[in-house]
Amino acid sequence: MEEEYNKQLQKEIQQGIVIEVPSVKVLNRTFLVLRSDGRLRKILDCRMVNSVTMNLKFQMEGVEHLRQLIQPEDFATTLDLRDAYHHVNVHSSLRPYFGFAFRDRMYTYAGLPFGWNRSAYTFTKTLSVCIRQIRKRWKVKITSYIDDILLLHPVKQELQTVTKQIAQFLKDLGWRLAPEKCRMIPHQRFKYLGWQWNTATMDVQMPAPRRKIMKTLVNN
């Protein structure tokens, strides 16, 4: 586990997400957690910082927003941003509060850490500027939820072309995409926000693996 942690730390240092510093104001716990896809993610336990940081309430574009946006026979593509929060720089005045130690050295986050209670708010507000520009430049319906972006259009070929253009637009702005999670080929059946959508029948279903988990929880 320690070697995996060090591997992820070195990658973050190379990408400028984490920097080594001589001192910090808050020394937070840090460890690896298991992701839903089976991989490990390095996170920062920001409970001390969160306890003195006011929560900001904001509305995100979730399932209900998509239900209002989607139309029968729409085609869909999805884009996934890699290491979403880390794209956003932390102001120099805040960095001393996101400190942590590893192997007798101190570090802090230069990019938004997973674990801070304002990371989702800050990231969403930052990405929303790009989303507004996309709506202005392309005739496509778009919605996003943290690092997941969904594009909708009634014409399959048009959406495929536009999706490539928007992906390049995001890359040009410095956003990193996760190609293995992006779905660049338009489909009328797609998974988004944990649900299986079908615009041909306008059905929304819970995916089979999730249904199995829910049944297990209910039976227990």
TrEMBL record:
Pfam families: RVT_1. Gene3D superfamilies: 3.30.70.270, HIV Type 1 Reverse Transcriptase, subunit A, domain 1. Residues 14-197 form the Reverse transcriptase domain. This is Putative Transposon Ty3-G Gag-Pol polyprotein. It comes from Streblomastix strix. The lineage of its organism: Eukaryota, Metamonada, Preaxostyla, Oxymonadida, Streblomastigidae.
